[in-house]
Amino acid sequence: MKSRVGLGGLLACALVVAACGGGGGGGSTSGGGTISGAKVINPNSMNNPPKGTVTFCTGKDTNGSAHQLIKDFNAKYGGQGYKAKLVEFPASADQQRTQFIQRQQAKSSDCDTFSSDVIWTAEFASQKWLYDMTPYINKAKSKFIAAPLETVHYSGKYWGVPSSSDAAFIFYRTDKIKSAPSTWQQVYQVAKNTGGIVYQGAPYEGLTCDYLELAFAAGGKVLSADGKKSAINSPQNVKALQLMVDGIKSGAAPKAVTTYMEPQTDQAWQTGRYGLMRNWTYAYAADNTGAVKGKYKVAPLPKFQGGTSASILGGHNTVISVYSKNPGLALKFADYVASPAWQKISLAKYSLAAVTSATYDDPAVKKAIPYSDELKAALGQAHARPVSPVYPQISQAIYRNVNDALAGRTSPQAALKKADQQINSALQTF
Fold it and tell me: Against a cut of 0.90, is the pTM above it?
């Protein structure tokens, strides 16, 4: 692929979305009751904040994008007395979350702003650790793609500013398949005759994403509208899981897929054996080697027969700590991250999916990212994962039981019945 995106940068993007690797259609909920007493941001505070330095905390900057963000912000605003500095947490998403929680519990001002995984919104907001950003978002809402914006939405309010996103593609071999299948049922039918399909089927967050893409497309939900009860044990969700199970039984997907995360999926695809792959956008360039080099295209995820299309969002948001001593400057920084200038650089140079619609229409972006139109379409049909303070327990209930069904240890019906019980138990703890 001839573009400005380096392989290292795309592999780094893979690390960003590996936790999954975040709408409508029952994919997310802004339930969970009313959060009262949270600090509310003043959108005008960024116009003339006190001079000083804002600290941005994020995961390990493996591709250099965070360092350039700080450099560019300082170049633009340093002359006005505004600067930003970077604090890097470990690469592990779990360790990043722990580091942030420790600081918030200590009421520390170490991190004015934080790059928050899309799945942490409800947990952090419920603890009143984040500024309510609703007044700012209401002024800027029109520039954001709807699905990434939904990942900061909880209890009827917005708790951050979208910064980067991601969604999955169907990869298909052009030497074996003329055009991308239009339904998931066709995906599995075509896969049986073209070597099979590989995806992330191991018991981890990636499988939650893979399964929910089919479940939401089939019309299923995870939680009730108020976010207080499980809705996982439904005919639509059983139908989606049955299709995945039948795919392995029929040989359309290898049994080994139940052990695959992203790296194993990449390795399997690069052997040239398989005709189709479900994977994140980073794989467009990262996997273009060996037997498959120059022999595949990508498409947004297909519809479920009788239903719709649904992608699951990855990505991060910029949130502001309630313990920041300069929230106005923190908001200025968050606003810059979502600016046209930075969103263009973030996508064109670092392959981090932009959260603003206009970015995808920029000629320079189209030249640098050959799949920009497909990516925009994928984000347009995307759904956030369930927004809940107990999301980690919800996801665990999904991926463990779905993996049991895929591996043949239980039936789809029994798997989702057990997941339903575990999700309801988790919801009762909050």
Answer: no
